[in-house]
């Protein structure tokens, strides 16, 4: 089974690595009636609420950039295939020179460290937002939090420690690498970010985690998920960005879109519809 798919964006070679997949349960979408979920799954021809965990490898201007790194071994045997994907692409961990974390949730950064807390990518600089770094570094933010969230914070802190002298700030309009621009997408976490890659007159947008369950949240972007720290703000970000992407006809990807995960979006009667995106 292939773990990767690659497209050329201008002078850049961009590969989506499918680190793994799981299914969500309906209770993760508070305020959404079970019959609404059933109807949307039927429309999508899906039996379950499917999601993927994606990393993105970019080879551009002599740089090797990895955006997000999957959940490693944290989510069971259906995940943790980042290393396999990199091998498939002929890239060794020590060749990665730049890491970008859209945010510090475990399904995006666990693959950046070993179970012992050592950096997997020994030659890489890690870009994170100041807001996410500050939020996950403060233990008092997680007193009385949902079960397991304090462990997420410990993992985030371990990632920050592992790359401590190789951390840089990702911010709106700042380049993490040539042509790779930070893009603020507030709501999911305090410093949740996406990015835009521009090369040779072509572009790819990474929307982070504005969508977790494509079969539900694309046709009905009002549906929130309880992983969002500010669900209302995340909802507004999702609606704004999907509308912008539809208007621009932009090629995009994200942390949880299903294979092949290069998408375009069009307006539908009550929301939006995904279609495979190719330049």
UniProtKB/TrEMBL annotation:
It holds the Pfam family Lactamase_B. SMART domains: Lactamase_B (SM00849). It comes from the Bacteria. One of its GO terms (molecular function) is hydrolase activity. The keyword Metal-binding applies. The keyword Zinc applies. Keywords: Hydrolase, Metal-binding, Zinc. Residues 52-256 form the Metallo-beta-lactamase domain. InterPro entries: MBL_superfamily_lactonases (IPR051013), Metallo-B-lactamas (IPR001279), RibonucZ/Hydroxyglut_hydro (IPR036866). Belongs to the metallo-beta-lactamase superfamily. This is Glyoxylase-like metal-dependent hydrolase (Beta-lactamase superfamily II). It comes from Roseinatronobacter monicus.
């Amino acid at each position: 089974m292939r773990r990767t798919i690659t497209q050329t964006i201008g002078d850049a070679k961009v590969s989506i690595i499918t680190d793994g997949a799981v299914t969500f349960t309906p209770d993760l979408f508070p305020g959404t009636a079970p019959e609404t979920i059933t109807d949307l799954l039927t429309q999508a021809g899906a039996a379950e609420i499917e999601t993927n965990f994606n990393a993105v490898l970019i080879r551009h201007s002599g740089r090797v950039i990895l955006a997000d790194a999957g959940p490693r071994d944290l989510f069971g045997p259906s995940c943790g295939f980042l290393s396999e994907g990199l091998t498939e692409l002929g890239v060794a961990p020590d060749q990665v020179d730049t890491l970008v974390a859209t945010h510090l949730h475990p399904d995006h950064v666990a693959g950046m460290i070993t179970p012992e807390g050592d950096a997997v990518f020994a030659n890489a600089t890690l870009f994170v937002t100041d807001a996410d770094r500050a939020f996950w570094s403060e233990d008092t933010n997680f007193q009385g939090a949902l079960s397991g969230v304090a462990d997420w914070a410990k993992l985030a802190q371990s990632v920050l420690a592992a790359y401590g002298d190789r951390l840089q700030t990702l911010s709106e309009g700042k380049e993490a690498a040539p042509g790779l621009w930070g893009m603020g997408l507030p709501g999911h976490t305090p410093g949740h970010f996406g990015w835009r890659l521009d090369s040779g007159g072509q572009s790819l947008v990474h929307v982070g985690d504005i969508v977790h369950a494509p079969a539900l949240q694309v046709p009905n972007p009002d549906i929130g998920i309880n992983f969002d720290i500010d669900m209302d703000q995340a909802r507004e970000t999702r609606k704004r960005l999907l509308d912008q992407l539809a208007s621009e006809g932009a090629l995009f990807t994200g942390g949880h879109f299903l294979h092949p995960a290069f998408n375009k979006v069009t307006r539908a009667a009550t929301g939006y519809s995904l279609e495979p995106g190719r330049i």
